[in-house]
Predict the structure.
Amino acid sequence: MKAKNLIPPFLLLLTLNGCSGKSEVRDKGFIRTIGADYSDVQNISLQLYDSDEILTGQGSTLFSAIADSEHTQGKKLFAGHLELFASSPENIYENLSTLLKNNRISPSCSVICVPENAAGLVSESESDYLPELIESSDRSGLIVKKNISSVIDDLLGTDGKAAVPIFKDKEIYMAVIDGEKIIGVLTRDESSGLCWLNGGIKDIYLPLDINGRKVDFYVRKSSTKITAEKQGDKINITAEIKINGNAEEADIDREAVKQNVSEQVSGLCAKTIAKTVTGMKADVFGIEKSINARGISESRTWEDLIPNINFYYKIKISE
Amino acid sequence: MKPSLLKNIPVIPDLSENIKKIKEISEESSDVLINEVEISGISSCLFCCEGMVSTSTITELILHPLMNINLPEKSAEALLSHINGKMLLSIDRPIAYNYEDFFRLLNSGFALLAVDGADYFLAFGVQGYQTRGINEPSGENNLTGSHEGFVEVIRTNMSLIRRKIKSPVLVQKLFVLGDKSQTDLCICYMSDRVPKKLIKRIMDSLNKSELESILSTGYIQPFIESGGKRIFSSIGMTERPDVLCSKLIEGRVAILVDGNPYALIIPKLVSDNFQTVDDYNFKPYFGTFIRWLKYAALFLSILLPAFYVAVAMHHPELLNSTLLVILSQSEENAPFSIVAETIGVLIMYEIIKEAGLRLPKAVGGAVSIVAGIIIGDSAVQSGLISTPLLTVAALSVVGGFVIPELTQSITVLRIIFVICGGIWGLYGISLFGAAVLFNMCATEDYGFPYTAPFAPFIKKAMGDTAVRSGFRKMQNNDFTVEDLHEQN
Amino acid sequence: MSKISHSQLFAVLIGIRMFSIICSVHPSDAGQMAGAAISILLQLAAAIPMIALYRQKNFSLKKELLFGKFGKAVYALFFILWGSVSFSNLWGVTKSVYFPIDSSLTGAVILAAICIYTASMGIKSLNRYSTIMLGLIFFSLFIMILGAYPKAELSNFAPNADFTEITESVIREFCSSGELVMMFILLEFVPEKRSKSITAFFTGKFILTELVAVIEITVLGKIMGLSDYPFFSAGAYSQPFSIQRADSLYMILFTMLCVMTVTLQIVLCSMLIKEIFPDLKYNTLLSTVLMLGASSAVNILNIDLTAITGILILLLAVIVPIIMYIRRKLKHEGKKSDSAVPASADA
């Protein structure tokens, strides 16, 4: 029998056998959320797409814990569509870089820090709860939504710190972490200031008090540009925030509204900077990048540099 | 006796011997009519083939005038020179000096006159066989162009071309091929645009064939195509005179085959598959849009099922979560592997298509209903096939309908790509894709690359390939396929 | 061998270059960008003897003494080496980026089988294929730029680079420019507009290198340090939807360019082997097996070929053309003076 005569039956065999044992889509479980706690070993809880079942697993590494959780059901787990990674602060950097290096995780996967029992939080909440909470808080300008790539990018900075959303006391805030622990948690105002400094706030209402009258200022869109300038020993960092919006009430002094918005936003930013940059020595809104982008060569360590940075705010409001 | 040997048997100046010879060669075939008669006192015979001649024409224009001849000199030479020189009995009057010519003319619908004492036959074009009328081509429909299509009679087809190009530089040369079928073929070209060398090469290729019969264009195609195992055909086919004329004007060569309503076009380029007559009647922007739609349809029809399989099995991260959930749910209860399922659906479609094509029209409709409603619907409902897969297969098949000329290649490639995608994912698709592209790039005939004008890139030709420029722009382009010729 | 048009030479060389860019494991930064720019400028200068050589009347590489059997063997060896580098790149990518094959060796063997088939189609089809690849490169980059635009942060670009960094980058860039040797051999088959083709290639190479570097830097930022293959990571980060990862799509470009690169090495290598040993059969198969073998050895023994390829590129694409040029010049001068003597004697 000629060798080429064997090709059709061989191909038929391959196709009917599902191509040399490759797993079919129905044999895969697609992970939606992971909650991971680290104390000597990784304890994880998983939520899958299109399933109410909660899987749990344990292992020395994140992926061995995921493999462990596979035993409880028949499907091969696939983390490529991970929507949210809730992690305890311990070992967070290692977990995130492992996930990213796996090369099949979407870089847009959200990250949230849970100080205690992240696995428990994932297993107890509805599958939509945490992703939607992060989404709505980000939309309202309460937190900055962070994904795996941006957190790792921040942690790889000179300061080694990053700002991430944190779920604490059933509320969501921003916190500064260093890859292994929480440095500090920001208040609601400080979190909001961080949102302004990071830019991209849109479609929110800013409550104002104009001469005792309560007024809503509608922020249509905003953008922030951080620029650095060297002046002798000092480095001047300017946050230029452009806000497009208007007061909802028509019969109001526009200049007073602008003044009020400007004061309120710069006040929030100042609070954030005082807490994060000055207090925690953390670069949470791209100070280092703006210095580097200007080509300013700096030999001082980050800790030495911080006292020599002056912050300025330029708030530009347009209707 | 082999027809080619008849060439060596000359006509002799003895009528009874000639009649005997004809009877012997034709073994007294019933359709060979032999009418012995005396014309102007000389024994003569009129031969014709039953059903091939028009009875009224032969009676009125040949028999009647011949019977009225009364010459003073009773010799064959005087009679034939009188008929040939003083009477115009028909406008097509070839002379047969041997039996090969005799039988070719006889079987082509000529009436042949033999006179005792003459060593040749006088033929009269009195064809009158039944032919199909000029209809709209069934395979190349269009909205706004001409509705004429080629028919089976080569001379009618030649006239259809001539009616559209009246220039004397349009050359249509008839020749005969096929030992037994003695089929008339016609090579058409514009003498000012096609190098003589090319015509000679094509004719040499054709003469190399030792075919006994040529019943269709497919018989001669392999002889004019370059060798090697090529996936795509580099010889075009059309049943539209207007399409053929546009190709001739671009400097291409056409071959018509008697008995076949399709003309062969040399060379064919990949871009030809995406051009239709309607493109030139639409506004240029719409023509360009349609053309790009066809390019997209080609990729869709070949690669969509393979991508579906590759993504579902190997690269689910390429899908967004919503699509993934839909896919995962639909495949949940399917009993076969996704590759087997896809190949099964595609093969099922091919079977249904073949059934619909070969059956009578009335039954063909029933096949569509059975296939579409009963098989399709019940297969999905029973969980044998998933709905997204059926959608993908249907989209792919419909995409293939947009480029009917590539159906053969698309059908086979589609299935091989599915297998590659199933085994090695996008890696397999890319590897096989590279092999197919190389094969396509290697396809060329007479120095015209099939992939031209894309590869090699010819900017001048982009006006009618990448886009469809307006005629104001194209009229000054003066483009001929000779611009695409690649030297070795 | 068939003739190659100047535009086809440009497409072939750009395709080979793009494959090197995709397979680059070095993170992009300002130093790398500056180094690449300087290196390309130096390569252009180094190509001048090559251009000058081919501009000479009646010059043919085949007739040159240096291109005897030994010379041909050295060039063939380079192509085997470069082919093995391409296979090694495939192995590297299969390990770092998700590849749907069970083992890297299987992947390489399938690729080799396809390349034997594509090489059998000849250089003509490779030239045409390269034109299509050029379109695919532009299309892929266009898609990448579209996806990268919303994610790109210009502040990731720090225009700081020290001298050592730039020097290293210049050398690294030169060592990855195997296309210079291919260019030297292929120019023999280009009948016209050679200088135009070379200038266009270096311009294109500069634009491609810098463009990809800008995309990688602005999209990846500091994460670039974590990624094994920055081009694929940039592809993954430049995807349009939130929970999705599109880098597998760039696998198509990678694979198709890999086929093209290996095919060219096989075609050139088997052509030279045939010239050295005219009676030897199965040159294509032999070349492919040698490439696969060399690649396996390099991987098993963990050899870094950068220095070796660098030296070979310098020798085969710069020094050899210079020597040839000088030799021809001297010969020409000698002929001139020989013909001048009898003329003066007559006078």
